[in-house]
Amino acid sequence: MPVKTHFRLASLIAAIGASVVAGLLILREDDDPVVPVHRMVAASVTAEDLAAVERVRVFFDHQSVGMNVVDAIPGVYAELGVPAPPISQVEATEAQVAPAVQQAPASGFLAHSYVGQNGDPLGKIRDFDARIRGGVGDQVDVAVMKLCFVDIISSTDVDAVFEKYRSTMAALERDYPDVTFLHVTTPLSTDPSWRYRIRQLAGRDPHLGPADNLARQRLNDLMRREYPADRVFDLAAIESTAPDGSRSGGTSSGQRYYALYDGYASDAGHLNEAGAAIAAAHLLHLIADTARAERR
User: Fold this and answer.
1) What's this model's pTM, rounded to 2 decimal places?
2) Residue 6 pLDDT more than 70?
3) Which of the residues 31, 42, 128, 257 could staple to 13 if both were Cys, CB 3.0 to 4.6 A apart?
4) Are strands 34-37 and 24-27 parallel, antiparallel or unpaired?
5) pLDDT at 225
6) 65/45 Cα distance (integer angstroms)
7) According to the model, what pLDDT value does residue 16 have?
8) What is the mean pLDDT of the chain?
9) With respect to CATH, is domain 45-295 assigned 3.90.1170.10?
10) Is residue 18 predicted with pLDDT exceeding 50?
11) What distances in angstroms separate CA 18 from CA 43, 115, 276, 283, 285, one per listed residue?
12) Which residues of 160-187 are buried (b: 16+ CB within 10 A; e: fewer)?
């Protein structure tokens, strides 16, 4: 079994926005497990961006891919020599989330929590709505909720999920005009390995195939059409774009789909340090833009 290369964040984002990392090697259990990456360019984020984020009170509801992104945030700050804002994980029942957020510093923070249950996107949307209305909406400047790749599969009623999300967010934006709600595209899975194909033939479909990515892509396209680009954290686009600008994916049933780029993947659906650092830099830049827009 190949040994996965462990990346140091310092070598990945030494100069965010223009850094080039040469000679990296990423290993994946696949037909061709060795994927060379000749350079890796992180998102454009500056020390000025990070200083702006320090003044913003952010609440982020997510599951495991979101945790990949959160874990990478302190390293982005460290690379640019900017102190990171307080980051706290709220491990609490619904009734305790708001009080936990209230204890965070008034000057700026990132509070985050696991939302709902994987595989139940409608439940996650309801939980996020309850948390905002339960007091979190009175404590934060920016609120973000991310679905997981396991929430959207080929059998998902994508239109129903989007309509629930759209109507919930519209009501929250109406009732909490001082909160900026950012929207996140649903993350993707890698292109199937031969192990996936064997499991599928055996009737054990882990829902990590092209048809599942097509469903995620349909939801993501609806999100992009509904919300302005400066309010969308386009995680799916980040995940599927290689350092050279090419897109990972393929064609299924005559439709083009995108997939998580192998070089950013720790497994079929999660981000390694490289992918997490790039995604975190994008998110921080978006939050900084939001903060600057609010001050104008």
Assistant:
1) 0.81
2) no
3) 42
4) antiparallel
5) 96
6) 21
7) 33
8) 80
9) no
10) no
11) 8, 34, 17, 17, 14
12) ebbebbbebbeebeeebeebbbbbbbbb
Other Cβ atoms closer than 10 A to 31: 9
| Long-range pairs of 87-90 with CB within 8 A, sequence gap ≥ 24 | 87/111, 87/112, 88/112, 89/113
Q: What is the pLDDT of residue 24?
A: 29
Q: Residue 282 has what pLDDT?
A: 92
Query: Residue 99, Cβ neighbours under 10 Å: how many?
Result: 14
| Three-state helix/strand/coil letters over 48-114 | HHHHHHCCCEEEEEECHHHHHHHHHHHHHHHHCCCCCCCEEECCCCHHHHHHHHHCCCCCCEEEEEE
Alpha-carbon distance values, 231 to 69, 137, 177, 223, 257 (Å): 18, 17, 15, 10, 23
What residue spans define the domains of the chain?
45-295
| Token pair recorded at residue 273 | 């340090």
Distances (CA, A) of 14 to 42, 73, 185, 235, 259: 9, 14, 27, 22, 27
How many residues does this entry show for the chain? 296
pLDDT band for 197, please (50, 70, 90 cuts): low
SS3 for 206-263 is: CCCCHHHHHHHHHHHHHHHHHCCHHHEECHHHHHHECCCCCECEEEECCEEEECCCHH
Looking at residues 176-204, what average pLDDT do you find?
76
